[in-house]
Specification:
With 115 residues, the chain is mainly alpha-helical. The chain has helices spanning 3-9, 34-50, 63-75, 78-113; strands at residues 11-14, 23-26, 29-32. The chain has a three-stranded mixed β-sheet, covered by helices on one side. The protein binds zinc ion. The site of zinc ion has 4 residues, from helix 2.
Length: 115
């Protein structure tokens, strides 16, 4: 089975696995630890924000930022990580809604101009 066939046939769900993995296969279902991914992403960007002195390694993120991110993630409790993920998720939902409203507004304007 090639990659795309695997992805098409695989069942994916969102759920907490543990603080060390973004996903786990359990009984033929891939559980994606979206909370950990969203929280880690936010924390990674926070490290960049609070350490502007750390230079990027070309286009790649430096090992130092990744190390600091991992250290901070591991120091936080599951409930804090989940809270961060919920805040990020709310922002994603808000921005998705805004993008949809903007697109509807653009179409409406175009339609009115053509009347
Ligand atoms: Zn980075």
């Amino acid at each position: 089975m090639n990659l795309i066939d695997f992805v098409r046939k695989q069942k994916f769900v969102v759920g907490w696995t543990d603080e060390n993995s973004y996903a786990q296969m359990v009984n033929d279902t891939v559980i994606i630890n979206l909370h950990l991914f969203l929280a880690t992403t936010a924390i990674h960007e926070y490290i960049h924000h609070t350490h502007p002195d750390i230079k990027l390694d070309g286009n790649l993120c430096s090992k130092e930022v990744q190390r600091k991110t991992t250290k901070l993630v591991k120091s936080l409790s599951k409930s804090v990580l989940m809270e961060i993920a919920e805040v990020v998720n709310k922002s994603l939902a808000k921005n998705q809604r805004k993008a949809m409203e903007d697109a509807l507004h653009r179409v409406q304007k175009r339609w009115e101009t053509n009347q």
